[in-house]
Write a structure and sequence with these properties.
Ribosomal Protein L30, Chain: A, 3 strands, 29% helix, globular, ribosomal protein, Ribosomal_uL30_ferredoxin-like, Ribosomal_uL30_bac-type
Length: 63
């Protein structure tokens, strides 16, 4: 089993306005809903998949 202490921080850089509902829901699932907001999450394949789905709206922040 992988080490669960690994985290990834994402920052919202794009607006969900005029985006599909699925992308809006993914941002909310990542804990983001306003530009510039950051969220630190456990680094799992599911979270990485969510980041990939909205990669044009977020950026991964290096610690």
């Amino acid at each position: 089993m992988a080490n669960s202490t690994n985290t990834v921080t994402v920052e919202q850089t794009g607006s969900p306005i005029r985006r599909p509902e699925a992308q809006r829901a993914t941002l909310i699932g990542l804990g983001l809903n306003k530009l510039g907001r950051r969220s630190t999450l456990e680094d799992t394949p599911a979270v990485r998949g969510m980041i990939y789905k909205v990669r044009h709206l977020v950026r991964v922040v290096e610690a």
